[in-house]
Amino acid sequence: MNQNLITDIPASLKKLQNKILELKIAEKIIIQNGDLGYASAPSNIALLKYWGKTLGREQIPINSSISYTLGGFRSFTKVTALGRFFPDEIKSDALFSNQLILKNKNNEIIQIPHKMDRLIKSILFPFGKEIYLKIDSYNNFPTACGIASSASGYAALVAAIADLLQLQIHFTEQELKIWLTEWSRLGSGSATRSALTGDDKFFVKWETPSDHKIDFSETQNLKYHPKWRTLQHVVFILDSNEKSTSSSEGHKFAETSPFHKIRVAGIPSRMKLMEKGLQEFDFDFIQYLSEEDAYSMHAVMQTGEPKACYLNNETAEIISIFVKLRNKYEAKAFWTLDAGPNLHVLFMPDSLSFVQEFHQIAQKFLNRKINNIVNNFNESLIIGRSEYERIENRAHLTTTLS
């Protein structure tokens, strides 16, 4: 595996990188010091999850997955071109490097993660050492605690670079989709499910190569029954601290669990069943499939070596309270977890009072306040300054339970 550049990329993406190089040579893409790119990307929560990656490959998942897009949980990213554009006869390493500034951390310039630096250099390979980036980014929700901040973060970064390169002008719609979803995947696997533009991207499928007999994965939106458009989402923040084991680390040890192969073997049939349930609005079946998959994924996490115990005792107790109360009221609601302790609840509007009562009971049980964030917005990935500012200035992307 090349440690400096990502080379395990599909032919379709190589073709697009060559197209960028040709556009640069033809002076149709000209980047100047200080040029800007803007994007905002949503997070997503997987209803059928992936855990584990193919060894020796770049971000190829062991199993396929289906997610629900959290349009109000967003990353906002601006990239600024830094560069010194030398004549060809001058050989010099530029005095620039990629920089990352996280607004959530008081505009602190932090050391850019190696995998992010490698991704940027790979994307900007047609520009060699001419261009580096200053990245200003923030999330409007807690980071690294099981709300897929890396998914929205990497999707927003890739899309902001697309805006810097003005790929909306130079690429067809299909070419832009390939470029966005593939580079996002190569940054952080689940980011590919946050990298679709346009309307009606509520449910997204990310398929492994074995499911469609090619060498790389594929990302696409799913058809669904219109009733799902009223689906609501809230996450209960049981622990906002950054998790001790990152998802990237956890994926490496999935195959050490005795349950891993059993879980993966059942995924193809469950994918088909979930797609059918989404198209027919079979809420009870989606509830069953999603909750069962969350338990099975966390069983794999907890039985691998080293163990990744994201589902702690407190979360397990709160899930037990949720299920008992849900079954008592026959509410249209189900829970799931990402790689973190925070409880995601998806529900239909007529079950709001149940969710509110559950919240009160859970707080009494833990004898403390449980913060919550309700998704209140449904747009997918957007690219460009005007769209960025439209969404950034929009009130109430998220709210809380009353």
From TrEMBL:
Question: How would you classify this enzyme at the top EC level?
Answer: lyase
Keyword entries, A-Z:
ATP-binding, Lipid biosynthesis, Lipid metabolism, Lyase, Nucleotide-binding
Renumbered to this chain, the signal peptide range is: none
GO terms, biological process: isopentenyl diphosphate biosynthetic process, mevalonate pathway
Task: Provide the Diphosphomevalonate decarboxylase-like N-terminal domain boundaries.
Answer: 41-211
Q: What is its EC number?
A: 4.1.1.33
The GO terms describing molecular function are:
ATP binding; diphosphomevalonate decarboxylase activity
Q: Which GO terms describe its cellular component?
A: cytosol
Question: Pfam family of this protein, just one?
Answer: MDD_C
Give the matching InterPro entries. Answer: GHMP_kinase_C_sf, Mev_decarb, Mev_diP_decarb, MVD-like_N, Mvd1_C, Ribosomal_Su5_D2-typ_SF, Ribsml_uS5_D2-typ_fold_subgr
In this chain the Mvd1 C-terminal domain maps to 234-368
Q: Where on the tree of life does the source sit, at the highest rank?
A: Bacteria
What family classification does the UniProt entry report for this protein? Belongs to the diphosphomevalonate decarboxylase family.
The protein depicted here goes by the name: diphosphomevalonate decarboxylase
Q: Which organism is it from?
A: Silvanigrella aquatica
